[in-house]
């Protein structure tokens, strides 16, 4: 740990390092450093080293790691973190009343995932609550939803609990399942009692009326979709003499998020230097960057070698090569680049090789059925997943599918979806149902045909609109397993299918599966788990969903067999 020395300027330490090694740092960080140096020449503001160091010393004296291999140890700030804190709290000027106050009222920090955002967030909020000497400091931890807010609030509460001086006069408030709802620090000065507090806040900002937050932590701004919370919290701080709002985030997806809008303004300020109240630190690649260049990875991850390793990034990079979605995840989370919000999961060159002319002989082969039903607009699909082996004994998956669509208005459907359904009917990949609705009896007849032809092990189904059909299937003696369309359920199948496609171990003879795969957009929950989204996907994805539903079982049936086992299998077949 670097001991904070009185009178030493740690912002200078980082600034000098950056300017001596410009090639190692992105332009966005160099501009932040150049802005700091420019400010040092001004006469209307000044940098108070002692004020900056008080904050740095507080963090390193009272805030402990609560997770990972360093859990329990006091935090040791990295130089770039010191630069952020020193700028936030070091710059001073006289206000209209003649009082010396901070220049910075808002900070925007954007760094990739796992680069110590939690330390910055916890350190700043706890300093506002305990270290600055602000009486009656109301602090808020705000996020787009409750779960995200907990990711920021729980480490703050644990840091208080793990520091005897902070915990001494503090009451921590817990919610459901031990979640953190806030904390209150009560103390007295000259016989008068005061209370500083922090509160977890999600979406509902009505309770802010009449209040004046001293400190606001906006966590992961990229996940917020409208400006109400940000604007309300910002305006609520107006009566404070030197409030602070800390926006800490990674890059996100979509051009309409709060994060994107605040990011654009932060970039403007970094370029024009026309808003003294905002400090900006953004670690992002330069224009024209090569996302495969390891030097770029190092440039934009300020905690490389500390909380982020090249080995971890290499692992994520391998995943990123498997699909368009995984690439956008890598770009946004690990390279800190904003990407389009509704990108399709797969790109054509990644998926088109799964289509083959012939799946070979499948009669009597074991298979697992996936069922995705619809009424009118969507496709109904029965997916038969056959886990088997290639000529070398390597596990592969053959997928045979049948789609059902209403015959009514078929010409319009072909134009709207840009799919030659009539031709696919003739080729045996689609079945037309008379009228405007899907005929579930026809779906049942097809399943019975499959039972006569193949060794059907079970049916996995999406519960939507399937109750009657499933009852009939159960009467046939089939095991029927419900598969809900939640990310917590679907994530494993999506990840495994992505790997199968990448390794060229998935094949189908039905072009509609390729069509549906190319249309698929996924949603990601707070824990990073993925699920298919029919709402966000602009065109039909039902066939790929049916495949995934069946794959909940078929993925556990795929194991390579060694040469001896394979020889025995061939002998059995051709004996």
TrEMBL record:
GO terms for molecular function: endonuclease activity. Residues 272-552 form the Terminase large subunit-like endonuclease domain. Residues 79-267 form the Terminase large subunit-like ATPase domain. This is Phage terminase large subunit-like protein. The lineage of its organism: Bacteria, Bacillati, Bacillota, Bacilli, Bacillales.
């Amino acid at each position: 740990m670097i001991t904070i020395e009185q009178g030493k300027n740690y912002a200078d330490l980082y600034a000098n390092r950056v300017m001596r090694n410009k090639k190692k740092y992105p332009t966005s960080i160099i501009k932040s450093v150049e802005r700091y140096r420019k400010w040092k020449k001004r006469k209307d503001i000044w940098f108070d080293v002692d004020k900056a160091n008080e904050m740095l010393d507080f963090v390193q004296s009272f805030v402990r790691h609560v997770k990972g291999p360093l859990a329990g140890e006091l935090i040791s700030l990295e130089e770039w973190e010191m630069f952020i804190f020193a700028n936030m709290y070091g710059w001073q000027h006289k206000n209209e009343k003649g009082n010396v106050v901070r220049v910075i009222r808002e900070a925007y920090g954007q760094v990739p995932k796992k680069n110590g955002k939690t330390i910055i967030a916890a350190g700043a909020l706890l300093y506002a609550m305990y270290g600055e000497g602000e009486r009656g400091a109301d602090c808020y931890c705000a996020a787009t939803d409750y779960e995200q807010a907990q990711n920021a609030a729980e480490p703050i509460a644990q840091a208080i609990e793990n520091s005897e001086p902070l915990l001494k006069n503090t009451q921590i408030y817990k919610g459901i399942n031990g979640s953190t709802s806030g904390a209150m620090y009560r103390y007295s000065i000259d016989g008068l009692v005061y209370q500083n507090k922090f509160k977890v806040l999600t979406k509902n900002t009505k309770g802010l009326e009449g209040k004046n937050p001293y400190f606001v932590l906006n966590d992961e701004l990229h996940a917020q979709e409208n400006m109400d919370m940000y604007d309300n919290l910002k305006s609520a701080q107006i009566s404070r003499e030197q409030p602070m709002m800390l926006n800490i985030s990674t890059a996100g997806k979509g051009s309409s998020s709060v994060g994107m809008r605040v990011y654009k303004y932060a970039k403007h300020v970094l370029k024009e230097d026309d808003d003294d109240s905002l400090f900006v630190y953004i670690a992002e690649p330069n224009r024209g960057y090569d996302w495969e260049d390891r030097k770029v990875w190092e440039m934009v991850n300020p905690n490389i070698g500390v909380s982020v390793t090249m080995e971890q990034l290499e692992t994520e990079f391998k995943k990123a090569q498997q699909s368009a979605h995984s690439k956008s995840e890598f770009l946004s989370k690990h390279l800190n680049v904003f990407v389009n919000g509704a990108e399709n999961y797969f790109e054509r060159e990644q998926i088109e090789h799964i289509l083959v002319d012939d799946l070979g002989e499948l009669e009597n082969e074991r298979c697992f059925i996936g069922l995705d039903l619809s009424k009118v607009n969507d496709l109904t699909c029965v997916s038969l997943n056959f886990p088997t082996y290639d000529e070398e004994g390597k596990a592969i998956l053959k997928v045979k599918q049948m789609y059902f669509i209403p015959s009514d208005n078929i010409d319009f459907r072909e134009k709207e979806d840009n799919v030659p359904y009539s031709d696919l009917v003739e080729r045996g990949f689609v079945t037309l149902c008379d009228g405007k609705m899907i005929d579930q009896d026809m779906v049942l007849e097809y399943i019975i045909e499959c039972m006569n032809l193949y060794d059907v092990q079970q049916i996995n189904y999406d519960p939507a609109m399937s109750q009657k059909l499933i009852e009939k299937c159960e009467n046939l003696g089939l095991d029927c397993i419900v598969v809900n369309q939640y990310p917590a359920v679907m994530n494993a199948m999506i990840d495994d299918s992505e790997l199968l496609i990448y390794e060229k171990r998935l094949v189908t003879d039905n072009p509609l599966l390729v069509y549906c795969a190319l249309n698929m957009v996924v949603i990601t929950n707070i824990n990073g788990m993925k699920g298919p989204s029919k709402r966000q996907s602009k065109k039909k994805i039902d066939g790929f969903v049916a495949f995934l539903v069946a794959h909940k079982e078929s993925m556990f049936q795929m194991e390579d067999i060694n040469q001896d086992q394979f020889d025995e299998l061939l002998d059995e077949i051709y004996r």
